[in-house]
Amino acid sequence: MEFPREKCVNEAENHEAGGTIDVIIVGAGVAGAALAYSLGKDGRQVRVIERDLNAPNRFVGEVLMPGGYLKLIELGLEDCVDEIDAQKIAGYVIYMDEKEAPITFPLEQFNPHVAGRTFHNGRFVQKLRSKAASLHNVSQEQGTVTSLVEENGTVKGVHYKDKSGRLLTAYAPLTVVCDGCFSNLRRSLSDPKVEVPSYFVAFPLMNCKLPNENYAAVVIADPSPFVFYPVSSTELRCMVDIPSQNLPSVSGGEMAHYLRTRVAPQVFPQLYTAFVSAIEKKDNIRVMQNKIMAAAPRRIPGALLIGDALNARHALTGGGMTVALSDVVLLRDLLRPLHDLSDASAVCEYLESFYTLRKPMSSTINTLANVLQKVFRASSDPTMQDVQHAFFGYLRLGGTFSHGVSAMLSGLWPRPLGLAFHFLAIATYGVGRLLLPFPTPKRLWNGTKLLWVALSILLPFIWSEGVRKMFFPLTVPAYYRTPPANNKNRKV
If you write DSSP's letter for every residue of 76-134 in order, what string do you get? Predict the structure, then answer.
């Protein structure tokens, strides 16, 4: 369908970007580049607009769970983790009070190459972009999207500035916005409630090894947890979680002092020297917000929001890329039956199912990540300490207990009901520990408080995800949406 080529009001130097386009993708991060490749492979004309096509230099998006790797395979992008010095990880080990709880990914039924991967984000993203650019019907352009083109409530395309600063307009029947956690278009397409519970302070440690090789490490420390994982054959990444209200200044040296005095004494002895050396190196410490943001999309014909622009969770468990790639696979599959996208209203109504169908993966990983960041944070409240010990003790039981949690954490078993079952089991285990060796009124009271605190942590996150979509998706009318009647099967 050809859209009217009208110049934007108050943008006298605006020009029209040429070429017929089926889909505009805003952002060429993990979600955007993967979507561009998958839609291009399906024969669509795709234009990607990314603010910076140079390799990203960031420490987010460095952990890909096994469930995310399986999504890469579905998209035909599994070779993007090759030749970037990616490291295989078999799970996590959680350390607390000089004890450890291994969480091994349940990979027995998969081929040996299926595992978690850790790597430099920029290297991975550039591989994804290169794959997308290899398709003749996918174009990538460096530019900053300033706003959406709207006519009568329908998005027709985007206004953007190219590298030279020219104002351009690109038109397409569908615009997919996936410009990351700092999206400047998010509020045009959703009504998000963003919480920033903490910051991750990150830096690399050179030429050292973790106590358990092939496992990432989560240390439950005072006052908050920190994480180690390899990003190459010679580097470990350390990320220290610091509550938002207590963030020391990096430029003034307070952060280095905090890390040296509060965190370093709790680091593994074999990493201590590398840790101190890393924080003393100039400009080596970087800071990132941890955002919690449930999906709250508005139904707007002609546009769709995916990835971290739509939905974010605490980065402690490294589940963001797995959710984003799951979104890409789902959206690709939903679009495949559509011969054309010209009826924006009909396509919008059909794609409303996307927000329900994504819930098993997104809500499982989101809820687990958001709950764990609260549970693993040090607290002076004895009941909160009981919850923390209950969770850690439950994981140390091994077998079915830790297996179920690791299956959800890894994206291999995205089951909200399974998540609810395991949290109930953890709470029951915690109450049981408090009642032993025999119940007393004080122990019964402490057990009741544990249940109350555990539920007060879990239920708000479930509520924000949407109880109906999360646990009863078959009752949501959008779940049953079928492709518009005037679309014939697309030949691929």
Answer: T-GGGGTTTT-EEE-EEEEEETTEEEEEE---TTS-TT-SEEE--HHHHHHHHHHHHHT
The pairing of beta strand 91-96 with beta strand 99-104: antiparallel
Distance in angstroms between the alpha carbons of the first and the last residue of the chain: 20
What does the DSSP 8-state code read for residue 3?
P
Residue 418 neighbours by CB distance under 10 Å: 16
- The CB-side HSE value for 2 (13 A sphere, CA atoms) comes to 5
Mean per-residue pLDDT, 240-263: 93
Whether the per-residue pLDDT at 232 is higher than 90: the answer is yes
Q: What is the structure's pLDDT at 480?
A: 85
Q: How many CB atoms lie within 10 A of CB 13?
A: 10
Calpha distance 29→403 (Å, rounded): 32
Q: How far is CA 469 from CA 191, 297, 353, 358, 480, in A?
A: 18, 14, 11, 9, 13
Radius of gyration of the chain (CA): 24
Q: Which of 18-22, 308-312, 431-435 has the lowest mean pLDDT?
A: 18-22
How far apart, in whole angstroms, are the C-alpha atoms of residue 95 and residue 220? 6
For residue 318, give the 3-state DSSP assignment: coil
Q: Which residues pair with 160 in a beta bridge?
A: 145, 168
Q: In 3-state terms, what secondary structure has residue 463? A: helix
Q: What is the DSSP string of 354-419?
A: HHHHTHHHHHHHHHHHHHHHHHTS--S-HHHHHHHHHHHHHHHT-HHHHHHHHHHHTTSS--HHHH
Question: Among candidates 471, 446, 448, which has minimal Cα distance to 459?
Answer: 471
3-state secondary structure at position 243: strand
Cis peptide before 243 (omega within 30 of 0): no
pLDDT by residue (tens digit) across 456-467?
Answer: 999 999 999 999
Read off the pTM: 0.93
Q: Which residues pair with 151 in a beta bridge?
A: 154
SS3 (DSSP) at 166: coil
Encoded amino acid at 323, one letter: V
DSSP state, residue 337: T
Please, are residues 326 and 358 in contact by the beta-carbon 8 Å criterion? Answer: yes
What are the structure tokens assigned to 399, written together?
A: 């077998």
| Predicted confidence (pLDDT) at residue 4 exceeds the cutoff of 50 | no
